[in-house]
Design brief:
This protein is mainly alpha-helical and about 100 residues long. It is built from 4 helices and 2 strands, in the order ααααββ. β1 and β2 form a beta hairpin.
Length: about 100
Amino acid sequence: MGTTCEVERSAESDFTMNHRWPEIRKAFERLVDLPEKRRQSEIDRLMIRDRALAEEVKALIEADAEGGFPPPPEPLPYLRGSPIDIHEIRRILGEGS
């Protein structure tokens, strides 16, 4: 099983993460592989312009450095007609990516 990392989050932080995810992801991807000194310098500059964004990106970078994120789960091989407890799968509605 992979390493997990718990990050304490506030309701405000969750709101920011949910509504600004494309922006957070773009900044994370731009900064995560930079050398430590340069990355910190970029985060400091971002902190001046947009503190909430910088804090989210910094938290993601720290979580990544502590062991990364666990891989996504393997899809379950449910087939039409398969029983699950007292339920029966009639059709697949969709799958995540």
